Amino acid sequence: MYLLMSRTPRHAQGGAALLEALVAMLIVAFGVLGFVGLQARTAVLNLEGYQRAQALMLVNDMAQRIYTNRTAAASYVTTSAGYPGATTPASDCSTLSTRADQDVCEWGKLLLSAGESQTATVTSVNSARGCVQSIGTNQYVVAVFWEGIQASGASPVACGWAGTTAPTYSSDTLRRAVSMVVQIGILS
């Protein structure tokens, strides 16, 4: 019986190694494609995080301006003239009459320059807009809006005047916002 089994032709298993190599290459290809997709997603999320950090610095900048000029805090509330950053501010902000007007003008320039790009596709904060709204006695909401890169849930932050809502972009799911409540203490 042993002799019969040892005489089985060897060519019956020919090509099995080739088939195993092809399956292994297919598995590696799927792994590499998954890794490339993960890298692309990570790059987008990193840019979104960078934009949020830049927007937070812009919100903090205006909050500090309001704290510094606390006696005229109500003068910082944006009006229907337009969101800072949506229109080109005066070329020389120092010629404006009040410190609050100068601060809003300078903040508008910061918002505009935050959207300047060094390449055609990457900017620090796309289409940045700012808003300051009074929400009560000596309380203000400072918000910065921008257009994100990848669709997600729309930001619930709304800051505007006379019932208007936050600025709109190409899609509501691309609108991003950060805000801060500024409360001015009454010093006596």
Describe what this molecule looks like in 3D.
It is built from three helices and three strands. It is an alpha+beta fold and 188 residues long. The chain has a three-stranded antiparallel beta sheet with strand order 1-2-3, covered by helices on one side.
Provide tags for this entry.
188 residues, alpha+beta, 3-stranded antiparallel sheet, elongated
What multimeric state do the chains show? single chain
Question: Unreliable segments (pLDDT under 50, ≥5 consecutive)?
Answer: none
Number of helices: 3
| Total individual domains | 1
In which order are the strands of the major sheet placed?
A: 1-2-3
Helicity, as a percent range = 25-40%
Described by the principal axes of the CA atoms, the overall outline is elongated
Rg from alpha-carbon coordinates: 29 Å
- C-alpha termini separation: 110 Å
Order of helices and strands: HHHEEE
pLDDT averaged residue by residue: 80
Main structural class = alpha+beta
Q: How many DSSP-defined strands? A: 3
* Main sheet: strands, sense, barrel: 3 strands, antiparallel
What is the percentage of strand-forming residues? 5-15%
